[in-house]
Write a structure and sequence with these properties.
Heat Shock Protein 90, globular, disordered C terminus
Length: 231
């Protein structure tokens, strides 16, 4: 049912975005253009929301899963959102310090696009949780046959009740402008990778979200590297 609804919504959004783009190509009045740009951006935001819903409900893919380095994906995610957090910090006249401690870890079997997007989402959540500035730490390490990646902040934190509900779809503590799909989508991605997602938080003491994925076996790593022609 979710897939069918998403299909129809995407069709409607395609029409909205297409008509807005066509109108923008013919209109010169700055006030009208500004309104059309708002419509276009709203349609893009809605399309992203639909994609998140599809990720939340999609079945695991049957295609071969590549081996990836979670430390490298964490570095990429930090680089991808760097401009956003710096712009936001500049607008608020605050300081947000982001540090990365990437360890030497085994590979994991997973989709690099969804895993990188998940870490980006956790980072953006951390930025939003530090409206007065603060520190965000990204760490990766390995233990007990698993690879771990945590994103921690020194922000507002959550009450115990909110922490328990944080993984529920559409639950949000950020007001009506947020969809409440960030952590639930991240949880779904982790589950599809046969892993776990844990949240440590307390009001006024920040939040740390940790994802744990099973490390790929040594023979699997060797086969993948051999197939890729690596030394």
């Amino acid at each position: 049912m979710a897939a069918g609804v998403a299909h129809h919504i995407n069709n409607a959004l395609t029409v909205i975005q297409g008509r807005a783009e066509l109108a923008l190509s013919t209109v010169e009045d700055p006030r009208v253009r500004s309104t059309l740009e708002v419509v276009q951006q709203a349609a893009r935001n809605a399309a992203r929301l639909v994609r998140r819903m599809q990720e939340l409900t999609s079945a695991p893919s049957a295609r071969a899963v590549p081996l990836v380095d979670l430390s490298e994906l964490a570095r990429q995610a930090v680089a991808l959102i760097q401009a956003q957090w710096k712009d936001l910090a500049g607008e608020r006249d605050i300081s947000i310090e982001v540090s990365t401690e990437a360890g030497q870890i085994p590979a994991v079997a997973g989709d690099p696009v969804s895993l990188t997007g998940m870490i980006e989402n956790l980072l953006l959540n951390a930025v939003e949780a530090t409206p007065d500035g603060g520190r965000i730490a990204v760490r990766t390490w390995a233990s007990g046959g698993a690879v771990h990646c945590s994103v921690g902040d020194t922000g507002a934190g959550m009450s115990e009740d909110d922490r328990k509900r944080a993984l529920e779809p559409f639950f949000t503590t950020k007001g009506p402008k947020r969809a409440g799909l960030g952590l639930s989508v991240s949880h779904g991605i982790v589950q599809r990778h046969r892993g776990n997602l844990g949240i440590e938080s307390a009001a006024g003491r920040g939040t740390t979200v940790t994802i744990s994925l099973p490390a790929a076996s040594a023979p699997a790593v060797a086969r993948e590297r051999s197939a890729g022609g690596s030394a």
